[in-house]
């Protein structure tokens, strides 16, 4: 991956640089374990916004059950308690554009069908990203919101959010903060604020960009991280 000399400098990545967008799990202990790692190409990186592109066919790391079963196929009652591991897999379907403002406890993803037919925005509720030399890390908060071109919206994964609360992956106070973050995100949606009004659905990647390669040390813990 490129951009590996920027840890702790406050510098921004340049368009076309390749970084990792990662998520840590909810296991006890500082930081948790990286269980999702996605190589992406930087579209824009400023004090106000980080925008990255995950190309079709990108090799990523994702969690699976210990026997290889996809997580979403496990019954909800045991989905977060069954033993897990990780595996490498290619991102299927069209690519994804991810947008995140530094302090927001969510990121906004744009999805297209093949042929660049825009489908929807997806508000992924998560911890504000921490930056390190090779990318950004976050923790997913289960609850999400789909937003459609007609400005309608729909909550997603409410059952998973409730189950995470039941088994103690998130406590009552954190759940309150996540719900508050969701309401704040919806205020932006209802006002049709950025990034929904900014025309990102018409954006296209540079055809010269190569699909990033997943590094061998995709799960390394950086010596320095910053918000």
From TrEMBL:
Pfam families in alphabetical order: DUF402
SUPFAM superfamilies tied to this protein: FomD-like
Transmembrane annotation, as ranges: none
Location of the DUF402 domain: 74-193
The keyword Ubl conjugation belongs to this UniProt entry's keyword annotation: no
Keyword hit for Hydrolase: yes
Top-level taxon: Bacteria
Keywords assigned: Hydrolase
Protein name: DUF402 domain-containing protein
Source organism (scientific name): Streptomyces racemochromogenes
